[in-house]
Specification:
Elements: H1 2-19, E1 27-30, E2 35-36, H2 40-43, E3 44-45, E4 63-65, E5 76-78, E6 83-86, E7 89-90, E8 99-102, E9 107-110, E10 114-115, E11 121-124, E12 127-130, E13 137-140, E14 150-161, E15 165-166, E16 170-179, E17 185-187, E18 189-193, E19 199-203, E20 209-211, E21 215-218, E22 223-226, H3 228-237
Parallel strand pairs: 1-4, 2-5, 4-7, 5-8, 6-9, 7-10, 8-11, 9-12, 10-13, 12-14, 13-14, 14-16, 15-17, 16-18, 16-19, 17-20, 18-21, 19-22
Antiparallel strand pairs: 1-3
């Protein structure tokens, strides 16, 4: 009886594994110039410049690439779902001045690293969430400016800025570790908050933080860690 029950359990687990979506990260390559993010049948190829397409849009585990084969005549990627997800988003090598357009009622959630380029239009009017839950993520903005609120919110996540970071709205750190890496930071409001008893760490090093509006620090969590620079900043701003 016990052996029979064990075999039934094993068969059930195998069936679930077959029916469940892949737990492995996949690479998605944008092709075909202008189009909507949701149109995976025509734009999300399995290889750079390829004509075999994924059967769904990227998930939070998948890497997305916009490269030299993405925009042969330029074009615009339009965000049409309410929220889009990806692991790493990379624009390295993309040519012909492509545009990444996100309306203000949509959101971009990135669970890994972000690498933008100067030769693009980052027209993201919606909010951007960095949701990493692992260490070692990087952000390269290449001079692009965020137009809406930017949130760092990933317990156990760590982000390091590789160049100047600018947003016209809030920069809010909710959980995880942000390392500005001596880079200049330009924000309207700078907020350090954490929820659900998480831990938040912010290390400014030798960064210059230009705050147009206000600095807000709210400790409702296990701990908030600051380095000397942000302690000095707190003393000046409050």
């Amino acid at each position: 009886m016990k052996t029979s029950a064990a075999l039934r359990l094993l068969a059930m687990l195998l069936l679930m594994a077959i029916q469940s979506p892949s737990v492995y990260a996949l690479d998605y390559y944008w092709v075909g110039g202008s189009g909507n993010w949701s149109d995976h049948n025509n734009h999300w190829a399995t290889t750079s410049g390829g004509n075999v397409f994924h059967d769904q849009v990227p998930t939070s585990m998948d890497n997305v690439f916009f490269d030299a084969n993405s925009f042969p005549m330029g074009g615009t990627v339009t965000i049409d779902p309410t929220i889009i997800y990806c692991m790493n988003m990379t624009w390295t090598g993309a040519g012909n001045m492509p545009t990444f357009f996100c309306p203000n009622d949509k959101q971009v959630w990135i669970y890994g690293s972000l690498a933008l380029i100067p030769g693009m239009v980052w027209d993201v009017q919606g909010q951007v969430y960095f949701r990493a839950f692992e260490m070692g993520k990087t952000i390269l903005t290449a001079g692009q400016v965020f137009k809406n609120h930017v949130y760092f919110d990933g317990s156990g996540g760590e982000w390091t800025l590789l160049d100047e970071f600018s947003t016209n709205q809030y920069l809010q750190i909710r959980s995880g570790t942000l390392r500005t890496n001596d880079q200049t930071v330009n924000v309207l409001h700078f907020q350090i908050i954490c929820y659900n008893f998480s831990t938040t760490s912010v290390f400014l090093g030798a960064s210059t933080v230009n705050i147009v509006g206000s600095l807000y620090i709210y400790n409702y969590c296990n701990s908030i860690t600051f380095d000397a620079a942000i302690l000095a900043l707190k003393k000046v701003m409050i």
